[in-house]
Design brief:
The complex is a heterodimer of chains A (about 160) and B (about 400).
Chain A: H1 10-17, E1 22-27, E2 30-34, H2 40-49, E3 55-63, E4 67-75, E5 81-89, E6 94-96, H3 105-116, E7 119-121
Chain B: E1 20-26, E2 29-36, H1 44-48, H2 53-61, H3 68-83, H4 89-117, H5 121-142, E3 151-152, E4 155-156, H6 162-188, H7 190-196, H8 204-209, H9 214-218, H10 226-229, H11 250-273, E5 291-299, E6 302-310, E7 316-322, H12 324-335, H13 344-350, E8 360-364, E9 371-375, H14 376-390
Parallel strand pairs in B: 1-8
Antiparallel strand pairs in B: 1-2, 3-4, 5-6, 6-7, 8-9
Chain lengths: ~160, ~400
């Protein structure tokens, strides 16, 4: 079966989101928008209303050393994946939640909070979902600078109980 | 009296992977569902950062026992995109054959589980017997029934001999006959109609809003299939069509999966008959240049996504995996509200949860009068008994 045509153009994305960040086409069906934390909710809202992005593919999270990074991958019937990328300072890893705009984001944000320690302001229940309940507070295993501390307990059976 | 939440250990070594549901129910009607899926986190994303591209593929094959080929294909095609490799068509066709066989065994397994959850064990036995034929084909072609070890960066590891192709083609007519039988049964069999129709309903708007993927979304009329929308391996070259349905309930999801089984069989036949000649791999460089790739794949349960960052070395800088089941949980939590407690097994089973099926369920009465726990088996039995008492609608 031949591929579905991609019907969203770079110019349309520039017109809708150009004032919220720099827009570049990174692949025939990927357009990346480098935005900032205060503008990301507005960018998601506009992607939904102006660009017909009705599906959140993934919220990818990465630690690139100096900063943490979130990449909201959105798509719709036009088959173009619009990527909204934001950088987050390590010393204040806080972003507004997108779970009210994109319901599936609720579960993804809980996962990111667990593994990379990014706090989503306004999330209704930012509880643990991936890590075990006795995992030490304030340790985020997917951060590049995380190393297990031999004096800490990470789950399983406690030594003294053996 | 305040709502009571009972912590229930989710480990249940017998059958299924661990997940814990807290079901808040008012009598027989479900009010709310909370879930905890964390019990089996193995840190594969972290482990992937410390293995080179040769050693990381077998690791990713073990993300999931059922979608093992899905995870390696989506990863290798992402790395190949970063390395700007052109993969020989014969390798892409072999990947497609294994991918569609995997979809067939997964959907047949699902059909059997769904039949079992509603107490129709004859169908469960039939589908699992037919699934054996698919498993045998996989074993003959790849050497393995579960983790096929087919993919590597640059192509596939095993070629198909003419004898293997003939043996596989010979098995198809019988399977085709069985699939036609299932397609007929879904529309005629009283037990399936009674327990599937109108159960776990999700409108198109809900499916879109809640981010459902795969057969769950397509059964609600969302025309979304990565094999067509972001084509990979051989899907753009071979004839097939996307199956959708508008019922939006478990019945619709069954129709979609049975339709997809028939499509997969046709694709496998086409690929076997039209397998291009030539090499099955191309030698990849050791390292991948700096790149950021979002690679997507239509796994049996829906859209599977790997977000990959490479950094001029032979290892990934970051691998972020989003499985279809994670995307589908939100829709399950919503489609269960106002349904009967008796319908939980079949609704949860209808998304074909991969990271886990549940081991135990806590039933909490909102007024706090009765707090108890049920095992999955007890709940399944409750479901069958509930409908037996209630009789035909």
């Amino acid at each position: 079966m031949s591929a579905a045509p991609v019907t969203l153009t770079l110019d349309q994305v520039k017109a809708a989101l150009g004032d919220l960040g720099t827009v570049e086409q990174v692949r025939s069906n990927r357009i990346k928008v480098h935005s900032t934390i205060p503008k990301v909710r507005e960018a998601i809202l506009r992607a939904q209303s102006l660009l017909a992005c009705d599906h959140v593919v993934q919220i990818a999270a990465a630690d690139n050393g100096k900063t943490l990074e979130l990449l909201y991958h959105l798509t719709g019937a036009h088959r173009m994946v619009v990527v909204l990328a934001i950088e987050i300072p390590r010393d204040k890893p806080e972003v507004p939640t997108a779970s009210d705009l994109l319901p599936p984001a609720g579960i993804y944000e809980r996962q990111i909070h667990d593994l990379l320690g990014i706090t989503f302001r306004g999330h209704p229940a930012l509880k643990r979902i991936i890590l075990n309940e006795d995992w030490p507070e304030g340790e985020y295993p997917l951060r590049k600078d995380w190393k297990p501390d031999p004096t800490h307990f990470y789950g399983g059976v406690r030594e003294e109980a053996k | 009296m305040a709502e009571v939440i009972v912590p229930v250990g989710p480990q249940h070594p017998a059958l299924k992977e661990p997940v814990n549901f807290k079901v808040v129910a008012d009598g027989e009607t479900i009010v709310r569902l909370e879930l905890d899926v964390s019990y089996n986190h193995r840190g594969i994303e972290k482990a992937a950062e410390s293995r080179d591209f040769v050693r990381v593929v077998p690791l990713l094959e073990r993300v999931c026992g059922i979608c093992s080929h899905s995870h390696t294909t989506v990863f290798t095609k992402g790395i190949e995109e970063a390395m700007k490799l052109t993969i020989p068509p014969r390798a892409q066709y072999i990947r497609t054959i294994v991918a569609e066989l995997e979809r067939m065994h997964s959907h047949l397994l699902w059909l059997g589980v769904a039949a079992h959850e509603v107490g129709f064990n004859t169908l469960f036995m039939w589908t699992w017997r037919d699934r054996e034929a698919v498993q045998d084909m996989l074993e003959e072609m790849t050497g393995n029934r579960v983790n096929y070890g087919t993919n590597e960066v640059g192509g596939v590891r095993r070629d198909l001999t003419p004898e293997q192709i003939q043996a596989a083609l010979k098995r198809l007519p019988k399977l085709e006959e069985r699939l036609a039988k299932y397609a007929e049964m879904v529309n005629a069999e009283e037990t399936m109609l009674l327990r599937f129709k109108g159960v776990g309903h999700l409108t198109k708007e809900q499916a879109l809003q809640l981010g459902a993927v795969g057969p769950t979304a397509r059964a609600s009329g969302v025309d979304y299939d990565i094999r067509r929308d972001d084509p990979y391996i051989a899907y753009a070259d071979i004839p097939w069509k996307v199956i959708t349905d508008t019922h939006g309930d478990v019945y619709g999801r069954t129709l979609v999966r049975v339709g997809e089984l028939q499509q997969s069989l046709e694709m496998i036949r086409y690929c076997l008959q039209n397998l291009p000649a030539g090499p099955i791999r191309t030698a990849p460089p050791r390292a991948a240049p700096r790149a950021e790739i979002l690679t997507r794949y239509e796994a049996p349960r829906g859209e599977l996504v790997h977000f990959i960052r490479t950094n001029n070395t032979d290892k990934v800088e970051r691998l972020d995996i989003r499985t279809p089941t994670l995307a589908n949980w939100t829709s399950v939590a919503v489609s269960l509200v106002n349904q009967n407690l008796a319908d939980i097994p079949v609704i949860v089973a209808a998304i074909d949860p991969c990271l886990s099926c549940t081991s135990r369920i806590t039933v909490v009465n909102p007024k706090g009068r009765h707090v108890g726990e049920m095992t999955w088996d007890e709940l399944s039995e409750h479901g069958r008994e509930f409908y037996r008492r209630r009789g035909r609608r």
